[in-house]
Design brief:
Length: about 625
């Protein structure tokens, strides 16, 4: 009865507002959970008098020091939350009073507001620079605030510096609150049940100050308690994943090629460990630039610093529409949603979810449609997990030209590939320094001074240099005139020839070529980059021989070619041997238009082996 009376007496009718659920989720996420964590002393929903004017709830007693915080949330607006629109909701003047008194104000909605960027600039800019930094809409909002708050420009900037405007939709908000609850609270029921219990409890205690103790006492009556420390079993699982990932990357490096220092590793580690650093670090570069190596070296460094590191390779992923389905795949290995497993394994300590090969989902490669939703769900959960950061590797071209990948990495800022996001640090991995290349080549026995400038530039690519290392370490491959090697396709052809000769005694005259062609054809047809051993149960010894020679690598029970570039090379050779062209590939299937890597590989081989056909085919591709 009391709860019903309180609901009926509050302004606007709390039943009607909380029936939308957006406000309830926000109140639990940004109100109840901070009190449960001890960040504030109490929460009061719709506090009376001026303390609660224009507020959904107020947080009192920020710990260890700081201002109170009032929150207001509106699920959506028909257009956008301009200063005028907020004024019409009778929020603008109360916000101004709270901010003038030193109380922080947080406004959340699924609809964008011009005050978000104006407030961000108010915090960032000096007083003399702020007005000049505002765009037209922000300037109009500033002028309106000066009028309605009866304040100077300098005072408006001071107040706006205390305003946080958060644009968050229903689905993302639900993910955020569920992940935060799951990390903090454990019990006989799941996080969704805890959310409903807490929402009901707060609704039943409108205008009642709720302390951490009272909230925890209530949760205990429902079978919930605070999660304490790391989950040992999950910590061990994540450690195994990290070790397996690092070993897999190291195994692809030829034994005669030393680990080369990459300055990008320091920048990755710094970005992921700075207290005010970005939540996401994305490493990009062209194919073969060593992105995965940078990630592996960063994993080792971070682990040495006590950070929990949980890596996964998306080229091993199969169909997955949710984060849970993705994490439970054998090739991913988490046994559940990767972000949630990582957070529990860390137990409140710093943690990083490492996502390698994001470009394997690219529409430009014709793959990823059945995986992208699961990855989006995983990254949304990761962003919602306090203390969890994300490290991503992706090919530069794919990130710049695939809107789906940009949305995964940049979120709301994905519309403009050149936009700077404070939550994302973008690092580019390039070629090796020529001094490093010289030292490696001289260690291989080359006379660096006699090598052509073209060859030196070619092997500055880490992948190309590893191919050279593989070729020179086996004397049985015979003498090779490296001056005749002009591009990566030449190197791949030399590597393929070396492996064909090396395996002839085991696999027969054409056994190697037949096997790699068969595997490449199946992967291309299925749109996958990895496979289970039982896919080729008819040639188990051949598959094992390819693994032994490093042509195939195994990770988490899945096999793949040692590099995508070799996969494309093999596919292209097989495709051309069937008397088809790159233009045919584009015409065969509308989805094949996106197979940029395979089309490029076909054209590269034509240019090397069939120059006249190359010119004809290139014109046909450009005209299609």
């Amino acid at each position: 009865m009391m709860a019903q009376s309180l609901r009926a007496s509050t302004s606007g009718g709390i039943d009607g507002k909380w029936g939308l659920r957006y406000e309830a989720r926000w109140t639990v996420w940004r109100g109840v959970l901070p009190v449960l964590r001890g960040e504030f002393d109490t929460i009061q929903v719709e506090p009376p008098d001026l303390l609660g004017e224009g507020a959904e709830f107020r947080l009192f007693g920020r710990q260890p020091v700081g201002s109170d915080e009032v929150h207001q949330c509106k699920r959506r607006h028909g257009t956008s939350w301009t200063a005028l629109a907020l004024d019409r909701e009778h929020l603008l003047v109360p916000f101004g009073r709270h901010l003038a008194s030193g109380t922080s104000v947080v406004f959340a909605s699924g609809t964008e507001s011009v005050l978000r960027t104006a407030a961000e600039k108010a915090r960032r800019d000096e007083a003399d620079d702020w007005s000049a930094d505002l765009n037209q809409k922000e300037t109009e909002a500033k002028d309106y605030l000066m009028q309605r708050w009866t304040a100077s420009q300098q005072e408006v900037q001071r107040r706006l510096a205390g305003l946080e405007v958060r644009t968050i939709d229903d689905e993302t908000l639900l993910t955020c609150v569920i992940e935060s609850i799951d990390r903090l609270i454990g019990g006989t029921e799941d996080a969704k049940a805890a959310l409903l219990y807490l929402a009901d409890f707060v609704t039943d205690n409108v205008r009642v100050p709720l302390t951490s103790r009272r909230l925890w006492d209530f949760l205990s009556t429902k079978g919930f308690s605070r999660r304490e420390g790391q989950d040992p079993a999950l910590s061990e699982r994540v450690l195994v994943l990290k070790d397996s990932y690092v070993r897999g990357i190291e195994a692809m490096r030829p034994q005669n090629l030393a680990i080369l220092a990459r300055p990008e590793v320091n920048r990755v580690v710094e970005g992921l460990t700075l207290p005010e650093g970005p939540q996401v670090v994305v490493v990009t570069g062209p194919p073969g630039s060593g992105k995965s190596t940078v990630l592996a070296l960063a994993c080792v460094r971070l682990t040495e610093m006590g950070v929990v590191v949980a890596p996964l390779r998306l080229d091993a992923a199969q169909e997955a529409w949710t984060a849970d389905a993705l994490g439970r795949q054998q090739g991913i290995g988490f046994g559940g949603p990767p972000a949630r497993i990582t957070a529990r394994a860390a137990g409140g300590e710093p943690a990083v979810l490492v996502v390698d090969q994001l470009d394997s989902l690219s529409i430009l490669s014709g793959r990823g449609d059945q995986v992208v939703d699961g990855v989006r769900d995983m990254l949304t959960q990761a962003r919602a997990s306090d203390g969890l950061r994300i490290l991503i590797a992706c090919r530069q071209y794919d990130l710049e030209n695939d809107h789906r990948l940009r949305s995964l990495v940049y979120g709301e800022a994905a519309g403009d590939p050149g936009i700077a996001s404070p939550d994302v640090l973008h690092l580019t991995v390039g070629n090796l320094e020529q001094t490093e290349v010289r030292d490696v080549l001289e260690a291989f026995g080359f006379n660096h001074g006699t090598l052509s400038a073209r060859f030196k530039e070619l092997v500055a690519s880490p992948f190309n240099l590893s191919l050279v290392a593989t070729l020179v370490q086996d004397p049985r491959s015979g003498h090779r005139d490296f001056d005749l090697i002009h591009d990566r396709d030449d190197l791949l052809a030399a590597y393929d020839s070396r492996l064909r000769q090396r395996t002839r005694s085991v696999l027969g005259q054409n056994g190697f070529t037949s096997a790699v062609h068969k595997i490449a054809a199946v992967l291309s047809e299925t749109g996958m980059l990895s496979f289970a051993r039982d896919w080729f149960a008819d040639i188990p010894d051949t598959v094992e021989a390819l693994v032994h020679e490093g042509v195939l690598v195994e990770h988490a029970g899945r096999l793949r070619f040692f590099h995508d570039e070799y996969f494309n090379f093999v596919f292209a050779r097989q495709y051309l041997q069937s008397s088809r062209t790159a233009a045919d590939l584009i015409r065969d299937d509308i989805q094949d238009i996106a197979r940029r890597g395979q089309v490029s590989a076909i054209l590269a081989q034509q240019r090397r082996l069939q120059p006249q056909l190359y010119e004809t085919d290139l014109r046909a591709v450009l005209d299609s």
